[in-house]
Design goal:
Blueprint (H helix, E strand, L loop, with lengths): L9 H4 L19 E2 H8 L3 H10 L6 E2 L5 E3 L1 H16 L4 H11 L1 H6 L24 H22 L1
Antiparallel strand pairs: 1-3, 2-3
Length: 157
């Protein structure tokens, strides 16, 4: 006799397996997004947002009395900029902070072109990359480096 297939509990049965769409400006509630919602919208883990909050002094989401974080649209724009600098452009945290201080948070978020005399790369950007490494491998290596730096920082504290 064959065993009966197990059915899923009702709470799981209604969930869809499709990935959630990132939050858009119109989908952000007035109260803002909770840290998990913001992390999903950006495609990062919640601990990354907490860590970035410690590393970037201008990143200050609203906190409730119970210490819950709520991210407004302006906060999400800042987080997208930070993610772009760290993940796409290969800046270190120190380099991203210097870059933001040099060019201004508002100018970088607005996507204004950098001045012509702006340096193409800085030591904090990892400009000594091997020409044989393609963009995907470079991104993976930068991500591993960032993770190791985060772990090192945690272990130092």
């Amino acid at each position: 006799m064959k065993p009966m297939p197990r059915s899923r509990p009702p709470s799981v049965r209604h969930r869809s397996a499709a990935p959630q769409k990132p939050a858009t400006v119109s989908a952000i509630p007035e109260r803002g997004l909770k840290i998990g919602e913001a992390a999903r919208a950006l495609g990062v883990e919640t601990y990354v947002l907490r860590f970035w909050e410690t590393q970037f002094p201008f990143l200050k989401p609203k906190h409730t009395r119970t210490k819950h974080r709520f991210y407004q649209e302006k906060d999400l724009e800042v987080l997208r900029l930070i993610k772009r600098l760290l993940h796409d452009e290969g800046f270190t945290i120190v380099g991203a902070n210097k870059h933001i201080k040099e060019f201004g948070l508002d100018a970088l978020m607005a996507g204004r072109p950098l001045p012509k005399n702006a340096p193409a790369s800085s030591p904090e950007r990892g400009s000594s990359q091997s020409p044989g490494i393609d963009g995907q491998a470079r991104r993976v290596l930068n991500e591993v480096r960032r993770d190791l730096e985060s772990i090192h920082k945690i272990l130092e504290d």
